[in-house]
């Protein structure tokens, strides 16, 4: 479950709440007990970055490595190249 940030427009109290994604936003401030809470927009607590988490979705597409000269790494550039 995600953590949402709230701030009361009436008293300025900041509040975090662990809620389900489909739950209704909170309205009553735990500080002043009045209906002044507004949900704030904040960054996610985690990032999906790097390789691997989606890699299995693209197993059918082979990866080719290119060198700075434009040849693929499998051309055998050390042994004279492949004629590119």
Overview of this structure, please?
The chain is mainly β. It has a domain at 3-39. 0% of the residues lie in helices and 17% in strands. It has strands spanning 3-8, 14-18, 37-39. β1 (3-8) and β2 (14-18) form a beta hairpin.
Concise overview:
The protein contains no helices and 3 strands. It has 84 residues and is mainly beta.
The helix tally amounts to 0
The structure class reads mainly beta
Question: How many strands, which pairing sense, and closed or not: the largest β-sheet?
Answer: 3 strands, antiparallel
Uncertain stretches? none
Radius of gyration: 26 Å
Classify the helix fraction into a percent range.
Answer: under 10%
Average pLDDT for all residues:
74
User: What would the principal axes of the Cα set say about the shape?
Assistant: elongated
Distance between the termini: 54 Å
State which percent range the strand residues make up: 15-25%
Number of strands: 3
| H/E element sequence | EEE
Describe the strand arrangement of the main beta sheet, using strand numbers. Answer: 2-1-3
Secondary structure: elements and pairs:
Blueprint: E1 3-8, E2 14-18, E3 37-39
Antiparallel strand pairs: 1-2, 1-3
Task: Please describe the structure with a list of short key phrases separated by commas or semicolons.
84 residues, mainly beta, three-stranded antiparallel sheet
């Amino acid at each position: 479950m995600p953590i949402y940030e709230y701030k009361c427009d009436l008293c300025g109290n900041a509040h975090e709440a662990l809620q389900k994604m489909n739950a209704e936003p909170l309205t009553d401030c735990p500080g002043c007990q009045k209906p002044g809470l507004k949900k704030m927009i904040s960054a996610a607590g985690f990032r999906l970055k790097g390789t691997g988490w989606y890699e299995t979705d693209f197993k059918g597409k082979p990866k080719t490595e290119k060198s700075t000269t434009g040849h693929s790494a499998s051309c055998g550039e050390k042994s004279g190249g492949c004629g590119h």
